[in-house]
Amino acid sequence: MLEKKTRRGSTLVFVALMLVAIAGVGAIAADIGRFYVVTGELQTAADAAALAGAKTLQNSSAANLEAAVDAATAAFVASTNRSDGSNLTITSDSSKTGFWTPPDPSKNKPGRFDSPTPAGLTPNAVYVAVSNAPRGVFSQIIGRRATLPLTRRAIAWIGNISLNCVRPLALPYGPFYQRVVPGATPGPSGNYDDLTDSAYSAFQNTSLANRTVIVLGQEEVAPPNTTTLGYWMPYNLPNNGKATASQNQFDKEMSSCAGSPQSGDASLGKTVPAKGYGAGNKCGALYKVTCGMIDDMQPPTGKQNCAAFRGKLADCYASNSATSPGVTIQIAWADFSGKNATSVSLRYVAEFQLMCVFGDVPKQTCGYLGDNITYPPGTIVGVALGLRSRFLSPTDIVSNAPTNVQRLFLVK
Description:
Blueprint: H1 2-7, H2 10-59, H3 65-80, E1 82-83, E2 86-87, E3 95-101, E4 112-114, E5 125-132, E6 150-161, E7 169-172, H4 173-180, H5 197-204, H6 208-211, E8 212-215, E9 233-236, H7 247-256, E10 268-271, H8 290-296, E11 327-335, E12 343-357, E13 380-384, E14 398-399, E15 406-410
Parallel strand pairs: 7-11
Antiparallel strand pairs: 1-2, 3-4, 3-5, 5-6, 6-14, 6-15, 7-9, 8-13, 9-10, 10-12, 11-12, 12-13
């Protein structure tokens, strides 16, 4: 009997001792759970900041894109995100502008982010790192007062959704912007702003005549008392970020779009050298790439040749259909300076309804325009169509290739 009395209360003592250990483990578990919450808050902040930076990069025409993106990401994080109950801040070192090359599964190559952006390419991605160092609340009971440094990172990419084959024709963006936004003037950098959805939608609802543009070939002069948009320039689609400015490459891209890249930069394209088709060739010296461009065009009915444009009318394509004249191609609205510019900066790639291409036939006219005006060789007449967006589908290719549809993607 005495032996039993001596055991009474031993379980209580054991539980009391275990409660200390259980409380400690529970405290640590609670703090670990809290650290996971803070980690999630940091990842959300990094994702959102990278997307905000990419949006700024996509729409900015600032001379110093890096500074503009850094300012945008820092302001976004400071004003919209909190972690562990406090405001977040990032430094310029935590935000980087660079170039994202998407993965290539066929070659077993992962995606790659390069910062600074390699020479000859235009930045298309933003990297952001967001950090915090929370201190455990319950773990301090057991003497752990050190903070736990946590960092989460994100990369946002301006991906292009590939549409049809892009013909390497660059039409002047500045004068076109003035057509869409009458009375507009260029900004401090000398370039015009990006087109807004509302402005372009309103432009698309204007008359067919207002959306019809006449663009001269290089080194040509408009006839007296006529209104043209300026002059177009040929360019080579870059291949894996490198452009090879040659007449042969231009012909290849015009005829089959074989040079359309699925990777590589699309914002900077080299123009075709001015050697082209000179004196002694079938186009003569009137316009050095006009005949080649006409030869290489491929309308729905098959490949045309220069002879098809050597009749009285310059609107060979219009004869394909009486109810739906012209042929729709992809062209670029681009910034370039001088008639002998060495590069073009693509602002948009858009659909363009090509109506007439003037060859070297004397007194040739464009039936679509309904006048008797003869424009110089190389003059293009067409209708500016929409910058149409699309939903992503499983068959869409998302890359750095030129396109008029862009989306922001979190890639890492």
